[in-house]
Amino acid sequence: MASRIFLADDNTVVRQSLERFLNRKGYDVAAFETGPELLEAASVAPPDLALLDIRMPVMDGIEVLKRLRAMHPGVVVIMITAFGSPESAVQALKAGAFEYISKPIKDMDALTVLIENALEPVRLRKQIEILREKQREAFSLPDLVAESPQMRRAIEQATLAARNSQCTVLVTGETGTGKELISKLIHLKSERFEGPFIVVNCGALPGELVESELFGYVRGSFTGARTEGKEGRLEAANGGSILLDEIGEMPQRDQVKLLRFLETREVQRIGATRPTQADARVIAATNQRLEEMVEDGEFRKDLFYRLNAFRVHIPPLRERREDIAAMANLFMFEAGARLKKEMARISPEAMSRLLSYPWPGNARELRNTIERAVMAGDSGTVEPQHLVFLEETIGREQPPPDPGGSLLNINDVLTLEELEKLYISRVVEASGNNLSEAARKLGISRNRLRRKLNGGDGD
User: Fold this and answer.
1) What is the mean pLDDT of residues 41-48?
2) Is 446 or 190 the better-scoring residue by pLDDT?
């Protein structure tokens, strides 16, 4: 693509001759008689380079230079004048001009060389941006399906959040909705996409290890510490993004340190006497209601406000059924490729069953169901009989039994506290002893569930 050059000179002969010459050299040239005309055109589509006469009516070239550079800092400007003086040259260069030449311009080849030298960094920036865009496209997220308006809205919000690479983002949604995928999209669409993307599952870490994992430690800082010390995940994410998944499970003592990091961008390793800087963008994700946890005193209010600078909510799959068919077909082809099976389609009968199921496990459950169906079939088509595993899933995902019915005999007399404990134990059992899943079904946090199981009142 030809470089775009804007030319402003009130001398008609000079303006037209320069325009013809530069056009013959292959540049895309637009010529203007006054500076305001050039600035108006630049507000619509900026040039790569501008040639400005210093002495012009309405607005002189120095003022045009200042306004153009304020509008588009990347534009290269060369000043031209018949009234050359050291003072005007210094003034132009201080205002941001690339070079200063006098007219009449006798050596047009020298002008061409000057323009080419001035455009070289501009072209380099463009090439880098093209490569960056290609790299972004290479980091595509094929699993991110957005046929429904709800999911399209979530992706729009994620894209908007990506534009500010400093602000924290809170991604909310049920288990299996794709919070990590959306978080990765935020990272890849931001200026940090070339940096690391690190995921830390706060719920999978024992409480006593969260601090050392996030902030690291120095040699000999505690019993069992590595001889050489350890870099924390926040430092490792320097220049990139860190996803703190299941943020609601983070112990409060570590919430304090995380809040300090968000305020100062400083990481204090365990046992260190001095902090170190870490430029990591924090994305937090949760399937819990952090507002309720704040009210219950389980999550720090000040940290919640810092994390909630920008929120992206992913609706559950049952609320965006338009996505089910597209996701099911995508997962089918992916599973077929992994299992080396030629998969062609999902039969209408099988698709009808997929569309009618509530998918409490969301996209993760749909993926697992389709993969097992592909494993079971040999015809290249997913049929209803291949969804026998879906029946097993339905059985597992049934809501816990009614405490007034099969949970106990109607003639039994239990206190409300005893009834609650019995009900909770049944929900935990029905959830396969997965406390996070049981807490989700009960509508409480995992910390509160843990306290109730340990004999506390949970409040």
Assistant:
1) 93
2) 190
Specify the pairing of strand 276-277 against strand 345-346: unpaired
Task: Please return the burial class of 219, using the count of CB atoms within 10 Å of its CB with bins 0-12, 13-18 and 19+.
Answer: exposed
pLDDT, tens only, 62-81: 999 999 999 998 899 999 87
DSSP symbol at 95: T
In tens, the pLDDT along 162-173 reads 988 889 999 999
pLDDT at 33 over 70: yes
User: What tokens appear for 341 in the block?
Assistant: 């099976």
Pick the CATH number of 149-313 from 3.40.50.2000, 3.40.50.300, 2.60.40.10, 3.30.70.270: 3.40.50.300
Of 358, 318, 326, nearest to 145 (Cα)? 326
Higher pLDDT, 145 or 332: 332
Instruction: Report the alpha-carbon distance of residue 161 to residue 261 in Å, rounded.
Output: 20
Contact 41, 75 (CB under 8 A): no
Strand partners, 5: 29, 49
Mean per-residue pLDDT of the chain: 85
Euclidean distance between CA atoms 263 and 215, whole angstroms: 15
pLDDT value at 411 more than 60? no
* CATH T-level topology, domain 402-459: Arc Repressor Mutant, subunit A (1.10.10)
Residue of 331, 321, 389 whose CA lies nearest to 359 = 321
Start and end residues for every CATH 3.40.50.2300 domain found in the chain = 4-134
Structure letter (DSSP) for residue 223 = T
- In one-letter notation, the amino acid at residue 262 is L
CATH 1.10.10 domain locations along the chain: 402-459
Q: Taking the CB of residue 14, how many other CB atoms lie within 10 A of it?
A: 18
Top CATH class of 317-396 equals: mainly alpha
Q: In sequence order, what DSSP letters do the residues of 387-451 get, joined into one string?
A: GHHHHHHHHHTSPPPPTTTTTS-TT----HHHHHHHHHHHHHHHTTT-HHHHHHHHTS-HHHHHH
Q: Which fold has domain 4-134?
A: Rossmann fold (3.40.50)
Residue range(s) of every CATH 1.10.8.60 domain in the chain = 317-396
User: How far, in Å, CA of 244 to CA of 289, rounded?
Assistant: 16
